[in-house]
Description:
alpha/beta; Rossmann fold; four-stranded parallel sheet; 41% helix; globular; binds S-adenosylmethionine
Amino acid sequence: MDFKIAKSIFESLYSGVDGYDISSKARKNLPYASKAHTYGEVTPEGFDKILKDAETKSGGVFYDLGSGTGKAVILASLFGNFSKLVGIEIIKGLYHTSKNILARFDPEVKPILPLEKQKQTIKFINSDFLEFDFSDADVVFTHSTCFYDELM
Ligand SMILES: C[S@@+](CC[C@H](N)C(=O)[O-])C[C@H]1O[C@@H](n2cnc3c(N)ncnc32)[C@H](O)[C@@H]1O
């Protein structure tokens, strides 16, 4: 898909969504703090490069472990050639935001995508990825800058 078109779809979906603020407020309500919950986001330019470098096969299964507001999953859907894309996020507020984005993606964006992309399945799951079976993955992305050693 043309980069400029994909980027403008992505920016319109995420307009007004502040993942940093959602994460910060949600983490204040948790009974514990973890360095691994530190928030950060992919950019369309950076993520496009990552996908190209990964040389992903067509029709594979993509996971984002720690998916935040779902940006990497949505970008992988727009830029990649996956059949199934799954984002797993432990912080409820971020997970709910990704679900809201998906609720708009399906009716507003899917119908204007090429036919093979319309067949993609996208899921967001509120879970600790350490407790989730992602063994059907072909590509695992994780934005792990602040993950502690044991988690890595
Ligand atoms: C740096 S953010 C990346 C967000 C998204 N992947 C992106 O690149 O736009 C890392 C995310 O991982 C989540 N996270 C950390 N440990 C997790 C775990 N064990 N299970 C699920 N999510 C986790 C954090 O809450 C945070 O939202």
